[in-house]
Amino acid sequence: MRKVNESPQWRSFVALGDSFTEGLSDALDVNGRHIGWADRTAQGIANSQSTPVSYANLAVRGKLIGHVAREQVPEAIALAPDLVSIAAGVNDTLRRNFELNVVATALEESVKKLRAANIDVMIFAFGNPSRRSGLMSLVADRMASYRSATLAIGKEYGCFVVDFWNVAAFDDDSEWDADRLHLSPSGHRRASAAALHALGLADDSWRTPGPQTPPQNLPARMGSNASWLSAHLTPWLARRIRGTSSGDGIEPKLPNYQLIHPA
Fold this sequence. Notes:
With 263 residues, the protein is an alpha/beta fold. It is built from eight helices and six strands; from the N terminus they run βααβαβααβαβααβ.
């Protein structure tokens, strides 16, 4: 089994997860799909190696880690890639019934199966939500516990780990979409730079904050909060009540390999 410090060359890359990896709120490509950090990372891998990379993206918005483990991991193994990324679990922390052991076990079993197939794995420890949102601070303890479990899994199975916890560069509003949950195009570029750094293909300049967005005055902030409540929080709560998901009926954007050439 290949170790993470052997500087491998990846000929194929498959990305798994939820809306973060699907690329929601990034810019649109020529096919009208969100690009996303994973697409950008596939391009970065190809550029760093000066060789084409076969890339697939099986992520679907709204998925829980259990969905990723049951549905996406077997499909990824069937594609026999050199590298797989798994970024999931945030949606689980937002559910009323969150069980750390269940979520962490699903991640560990996914990683274990991929590593047993001699596939390199990159996993994500997500950021501290209390840095930007008083409301999201309600799940900060869950996120911290899941991060600890993720780091332990990464160490146990020799994974590449992207750790966003307490990175100030993600505190600015410019890194986030208006829904306050998904990254903006700038945020996706930064997340891709973080992934490439974790893979040993870029430096750690992604941690350096960019120009700060001027703070809103009170009326503007109140208006922004009201718009967010109506356009984003209320529909999200309605889906929770109905037991539906934003990913219902959504297919992966790249279920089969697409060749990414060096730029």
